[in-house]
Amino acid sequence: MVFSAFAQISLWGVLAAAAFGFVFAGVYFGVLAPKHYAVALGREATPAAKPNMLTLFGPFVCNVIMIVTTAAIMRMIGIATLTDALALGLVIGVGYFLAMCMTVAINPNFPRPFFYTAVNAPYFLISSLVTTALLYLLR
C-alpha cells in the first residue's frame, strides 16, 4: 500500500505545489515579513544575509520532499474531496508545521520563540492548504 501510494502521485500536482511554495516563500519572507523575521531572530540591527545556493534551493528540495510525503498520505488515507484535502492541509499545517516551528524556536538561539512561530505560521499554514488543494485538484 505504501509504495503504490507513491506510484500514484501526480507529478503535475507536485510540480505545481513546489512552484507555488518557492514563489510564495520568496514573496512572504523577501517582501512581506523580512523585518518581522529579523526581529524574531534578534537580528534587527544586523544587515540581512545575501541568499546563496543553499538558502535558495535547500528549502525548495525540503519542500518537495514534504509535498511528495503529503501526496502519498493523501493517497493512503483516500482523500476524496477538496474539503477533505483542505482539512488535511489544516491538520498538517497546525499539527506538524506550526508545532515544528515552535519546537525549533524553543532554544537559546531564538530570543523570541513565540514571535518566531507567529511570523512563520501564516507561511506554513497557507502553504499547507494550497499544497493539499493543488495535490487534490491535479491528481
Can you offer a commentary on this structure?
By secondary structure, this protein is mainly α. It has one domain (2-137). Helix content is 78%, strand content 0%. The chain has six helices and no strands. It has helices at residues 2-7, 11-32, 34-40, 53-77, 82-105, 113-137. The two termini are 17 Å apart.
Characteristic key phrases:
139 residues; mainly alpha; 6 helices; 78% helix
End-to-end CA span = 17 Å
Summarize the helix and strand pattern as letters.
Answer: HHHHHH
Cα-based radius of gyration, to the nearest Å: 16 Å
- The amount of helix comes to over 70%
Structural class of the helix and strand makeup? mainly alpha
DSSP summary: helix tally: 6
Based on DSSP secondary structure assignment, what is the total number of beta strands? 0
Give me a quick take on this structure.
The protein has 139 residues and is mostly helical. The protein has helices at residues 2-7, 11-32, 34-40, 53-77, 82-105, 113-137. Helices cover 78% and strands 0% of the residues.
Topology:
Blueprint: H1 2-7, H2 11-32, H3 34-40, H4 53-77, H5 82-105, H6 113-137
Helix pairs in contact: 2-4, 2-6, 3-6, 4-6, 5-6
